[in-house]
Each structure stands twice: as structure tokens, then as C-alpha cells.
Amino acid sequence: MSASQINEISTSIKNLVRNDVGAFCSLIGVIFVEKLPKTRSGKILRGTVRKICNGKEYPIPATIEDPAVLDQIKDATTEWKKSLK
């Protein structure tokens, strides 16, 4: 995906949330990643993703399918936070 496509999709998502949910729920930004961390049974590790995005320590679950995904999310979050400054 090109940078202009990412910006366009990001803006569309932000506008949808603002219009459908309300201005009090507006998003600061959207981060795109290749994969989400999942358990071997296919459940998305939402709590772990939330901790990564909030800069908190997180355990690597024993049931994770691909632990490298966590590092990719952490790197993408770090880059996004740098772009805000």
C-alpha cells in the first residue's frame, strides 16, 4: 500500500468513527500491520495489543501462534508515535 492510500483509508476510518459513534470517540490515528497476534486456536490477543499500544509491559502468551508479530506491532506503534511529534 502506498502512503497516500494509507492516509486516505486512515482518514476514512477516523471520519466513520466520528460520524457513527460521535465526536467524543474520535480516533487519534490508525496503525496498519501485516498480521495480528493470535493464539493457536485463532483468538486475537486484544489485551496484549492494547498493552503494546499503551507502552505497558506485556507477557508473551505461551499459546501465541507467531511471537514475532508482537515485535512488528511494537515497532509500528513506536514509528507512529514518532510521527506525531
Description:
This protein has 85 residues and is mainly alpha-helical. It has 2 domains: 1-30; 33-85, no CATH class. Helices cover 51% and strands 0% of the residues. The chain contains 3 helices and no strands. The protein has helices spanning 3-20, 46-53, 68-84. Helix 2 runs parallel beside helix 3. The two termini are 24 Å apart. The model has no long low-confidence stretch (mean pLDDT 91).
Strands, helices and their partners?
Layout: H1 3-20, H2 46-53, H3 68-84
Largest sheet: none
- Poorly predicted runs are none
- The number of helical elements comes to 3
Percent range for β-strand residues: under 5%
SSE series: HHH
Q: How many E-type strands?
A: 0
Bin the helical content. 40-55%
Average residue-wise pLDDT: 91
Radius of gyration: 14 Å
Distance between the termini: 24 Å
Global shape: globular
A few lines on this structure:
This protein is an all-alpha fold and 85 residues long.
Supply database-style keywords.
2 domains; mainly alpha
